[in-house]
Amino acid sequence: YTRDIVPIFEEYCVECHREDKMKGEYDMTTIEYVIEGGEKAYPAVIPGDPDSSALVQSCRGILNPAMPEDEDPIPAADLTKIRMWIAAGALPEAAAE
Q: In terms of Cα–Cα distance, which of 97, 95, 73, 90 is closest to 30?
């Protein structure tokens, strides 16, 4: 998680989803908050089920607004890492390789 997933969230998500600027009431600065979700999706992550997780659906543009909002989509390789992390149980140090 720390090596593979946090840098993706920091690059594409945390600018708008942090404690002092929680768009959609969603804070992505800790693993607990990432899983918990915000006003539109609770939970945002369903451990073991990436395709049912709102986080993945938002990144794929299935849920509106697509994330990151008004930006280019997260690259497929990074989305694959997020999906693998969730599929592995969304654990704090699960490898997404």
A: 90
Give tens-digit pLDDT for 35-93.
Answer: 999 888 789 999 999 999 999 999 999 988 889 988 899 999 999 999 999 999 999 97
* Residue 7 neighbours by CB under 8 Å, 6+ apart: none
Cβ contact 79:9 at 8 Å: no
List of residues 6+ apart from 25 with CB closer than 8 A? 38, 39
Q: What is the pTM assigned to this prediction?
A: 0.89
DSSP codes joined into one string, 32-74? HHHHH--SS-SSS--TT-GGG-HHHHHHHTSSSS-SSTTSPPP
Residue corresponding to tokens 């607990």: 32
Is 82 strand, coil or helix?
helix
**pLDDT (tens digit per residue) in 1-17:** 999 999 999 999 999 99
